[in-house]
């Protein structure tokens, strides 16, 4: 569609001549409860000024139909002015009023105004999601972050519904079967941050109160909502506890009162991402409402997301990046603040371990793709922007901020942050605005730091280099830095030895700056050579850690005996990177997991190990050895499941891992017995989500049929049950099941996002590669068509999800190569996705070669 993409230049030109005074938006969603109604009525009035009267510009709107458009009282002909994505505003005046009345579409893809019908009770639920640029699917808008304005929303909805929005409602008027909700004007915010959540949502309320420095009292009404059928599982108390702890923390540190009045947190169905920081109306994926037992890691993860979004109220909502190049300005900060505040203000004290273990793994992976980019990115258009919500913008950016705090100190960092809010409140910023305040408060020149860390892509490796004398004392200790561009790092070095009971404990720690390719550390000369050298101990910087030979030997014999949880997580992360880089045979990595995962106390670390071990077996192991490895993993899972404390998180994690690795008849019999209630593991509750996981294992192995899977849905006729059933049916190892899943996604665009995901996940199972190998050619042939015809959210899932990731052979790599060579002018965002999948595959082949020895 012409004009669907928006370039940085177009946005810049528009911002140069426009300033927006206000939006008035009226949405009539009374039609939502009628499944046959595809659209809702949207009326927008924009009051704006132009510094270039007489010139033309455009307003964005992705809608099936424009009923009328008037500019300064003059009718514009939709037939010529509207192309499906933009309305041309031909002649601007100095003061302008634009009124657009349109029919906008209910969304099935989670982009725009999403409509969902709950299978449990037939109720209809709506919510909006826009970032980066989907407000234009709901109302006419100048869709770019730097044209901020106050928004006044009115929503006409079925009478039995509640409506949530960024601002509080001022008035509700009954109109027969409908009610009209008129909301107060918002503060000046960006278009992508506006939100509407409407439906018969279940709500719980609480209140936050705080004395401010000026003696006044800040009152923030709190609400938390979910679908009615999830209400029995909704632990709003825990959500409010974390919310209040976060509000306390951010008020202490940011010294800028929460600017958006109330604070609603809405858990919504079929949500594409984790959460979205709409001011005063945060939306979350509803998987965070736990209807079955989850581990403490899941509660920690949810608290992290709550705090991440809350940090955005200041970083992102109050102060917003000018354009998507500086997306990191908000995402890196929110990601960093999520973990930082979690440790300082909540009961989740191991957030830095999780950060080292999960977030950094995401960053390291992304940063080694050929498509990696500096943290401050070059975002040419909206498709670029969409793909930039990635491991660099979030996790690497947050890692670099952690390094910055180590570099300038906590006090200077927060002093800078406080100035930044005061100086730029309700405005838009670029990188330089942040560096300005940080340089002021730290007294340091950050030009070199910013150049190395924010404006240069890639990850460095740090390796210890030791020479020792005949008595085993260190004569020289150096840190060697690899990578295209060496960086300045603030790091700690830990030396570890066995204590009296054989545990590996830290005996020395020094902190220093590392520059260039080789840094000699004279302080360590003369010490006895330790059993283990851990560079980047305490995880201050962002790098891949390597080991000297002796340290690696120590890890093979005793990784699990490192007593410190963070040090152990760093060691696990390092051996994972060695495996991914083809420097440690996959079977050696799996041997470490089999030997030491059972004693891993950190539940989040353990669950990551499970994920990584499964991935290692499926794609990094030598295919000839894979059956043996599979057997070892399944036996290990069963052994640890039986050994785990009854009712513990560890027991649940091992049960799930057994379901994912089950390999032999006896193991499948156990899974079936657990489902039937004829087998028991003491303390293990086989609740609904675990049941579906067991069914998936049986289905993928061809040990369960469609009939009994459908029977399980009858017992769990919910949204979640429907997604699980869809995945199980697509996982059945028959040509017919694969064809049906493929066709459901490719031949029709009727499926909602959640079921697209379930179909793809079930289709692409590692167990029966023979059943999907025939789709490789079709996949590459369809890519461009999919990209041009589907919404970007769905297209991204199809391109990433149907890539033949388990066909780890030279033939598939050649097919990916051929597509890339043959399509140099395909959409850059599409090429980026394929390049990344291609790179994953090439990496898998290198790891397999290493594993073959
Ligand atoms: Zn965020």
Q: Any chance you could write out the topology, listing elements then pairs?
A:
Elements: H1 8-17, E1 18-28, E2 39-50, E3 57-60, E4 65-71, E5 74-76, H2 78-81, E6 86-89, E7 95-105, E8 112-117, E9 124-129, E10 151-158, E11 162-165, E12 169-175, E13 178-183, E14 196-199, E15 202-211, E16 217-226, H3 236-254, E17 263-268, E18 275-276, E19 281-285, H4 296-312, E20 320-321, H5 327-345, H6 351-367, H7 382-387, H8 392-408, H9 410-424, E21 428-429, H10 431-442, H11 447-453, E22 461-468, E23 474-482, E24 489-498, E25 504-514, E26 518-520, E27 532-537, E28 544-545, H12 549-558, H13 565-580, H14 586-596, H15 603-620, H16 626-643, H17 649-661, H18 665-676, H19 688-700, H20 706-715, H21 719-731, H22 735-746, H23 753-763, H24 776-789, H25 792-801, H26 810-822, H27 828-852
Parallel strand pairs: 1-10, 16-17, 17-19, 20-21, 22-28
Antiparallel strand pairs: 1-2, 2-7, 3-6, 4-5, 4-7, 8-9, 9-14, 10-13, 11-14, 12-13, 15-16, 18-19, 22-23, 23-26, 24-25, 24-27
The protein binds zinc ion.
Task: Kindly describe this structure.
The protein is of the alpha+beta class and 853 residues long. Among the domains are: 8-200, Immunoglobulin-like (Sandwich), CATH 2.60.40.1730; 234-241 and 255-261 and 271-277 and 285-458, Neutral Protease Domain 2 (Neutral Protease, domain 2); 460-541 and 543-584, Immunoglobulin-like (Sandwich). It contains 27 helices and 28 strands. It has an eight-stranded mixed β-sheet. It has a five-stranded mixed β-sheet with strand order 15-16-17-19-18, with helices on one face. A four-stranded antiparallel β-sheet has the order 8-9-14-11, with no helix packed on it. A hairpin with a 5-residue loop joins strand 15 (202-211) and strand 16 (217-226). Helix 3 (236-254) crosses helix 4 (296-312) and helix 9 (410-424) crosses helix 10 (431-442). The chain is globular, with a radius of gyration of 28 Å. Zinc ion binds next to helix 4 and helix 5.
